[in-house]
Design brief:
Blueprint lengths: L1 H26 L14 H20 L3 H4 L5 E5 L4 E4 L4 E12 L6 E3 L4 E3 L10 E3 L7 E13 L2 E4 L1
Length: 158
């Protein structure tokens, strides 16, 4: 009886080992270098990367100059008594001098540094990021000669 049990266990063990071997070979997939898993050379990969970089470089060079500079802050000087008017989305940072908010009935200027709405007549704090939310006549009246960093479209009105 013990002998039959021993043979049965040995046969089952051999069966499981054989089954595991076939499952492992399936899990390993195809052989490297075959049609399903081709090997490529470094020069081929470099060529493909260079072609992609040329394509990306060509796209970035085709942009108009005005658009390519839209991510750069422009430092401007605005004289006392002038008004700096910004278009929708224009970002303004007062670096020196004094400015007063000009708003519209639709709302004020967004002070992103403080997280508040600056209403008409309030002073613009220095070194705060101010955003013009709408193109409806919002801007900054300059009380004393001032320096601003501006990103976006703007006009200086005398």
């Amino acid at each position: 009886m013990k002998r039959k049990l021993g043979h049965s266990i040995l046969i089952l063990l051999a069966f499981f080992i054989t089954a595991m071997f076939f499952d492992i070979s399936k899990a390993m997939g195809s052989n490297p270098g075959s049609n399903q898993d081709p090997l490529v050379s470094k020069s081929y990969v470099d060529g493909q990367i260079n072609a992609l970089m040329d394509l990306v470089g060509g796209l970035s060079q085709s942009k108009p100059k005005e658009e390519s500079n839209s991510m750069i802050y422009e430092v401007i000087e605005v004289s006392s008594g002038q008004t700096l008017m910004g278009a929708q989305g224009t970002e303004i940072i007062l670096r020196g001098g004094k400015g007063i908010a000009i708003t519209s009935p639709a709302g004020g200027l967004q002070d992103m540094t403080e997280g508040v709405d600056i209403i008409s007549g309030q002073s613009i704090p220095k070194y705060h990021l101010i955003i013009i939310p709408k193109d409806d006549g919002r801007g900054i009246y300059v009380e004393s000669d001032s320096y601003f960093m501006v990103r976006g479209k703007f006009d200086i009105i005398p």
